[in-house]
Amino acid sequence: MAIFAGDAFEGLFELPPCSTDDEREVCRDAQAELIADSQPTCEGVGDRVCFVPLGQVDPDLVRGLVEYYREEYGLQIGILTPSEAPWQYISPDRDQAEGAAMAEYAKELFPDDYADPKVTLIALTPLDLYTAERDWRFLLGTANEEPAPHAIVSTYRMHLGSWGLVDDDLVEERTRKLVTKYIGQLQYGLPPEDDPSSPMFDNILSVDDLDHMEEPLRVANR
What we know:
By secondary structure, this protein is an alpha/beta fold.
């Protein structure tokens, strides 16, 4: 299921994919901050979720998500070793990364976790996403249940609004709402809903729709 929006904001909030020597230097500090919190495999038993940082992801945002889902839902949740964003999935013409391919890149990075039906992998990236299947301007994220539960969420456009100024709290809230939707879909098997206030709202066209969604999920083990 793809989440997309209809207007482009070219050139805003760009961060490097960490796929060249120069970009790796820029990304090293941000990724190094997450190394201490990360693990080479999605540890635990039973159902669990792990984030896959791709590129220069904000370490505070990732750690905040982990803390939130542990406290709010009691989930087994962790951070996998940060990785470069694969350059082969980035379109030089669009200056965007192909969403479905980026999401499935987790299979190459963590094949055992990807193959484990009890593990949900959610990649996080600052890169702008697009879909090769349809003529949409961009994606906010995409998720698939097969062949294994996996998703990707882009923070690239989550700051938009308020005259283009970056609001870290707003970025975290919007990112979390989309992650929550994917966890509801992939981890809890919740169906999509037509109610715009539902965390499982199915017709997200922009970050404004994320702002109208309410949390938390209605699940028994909260």
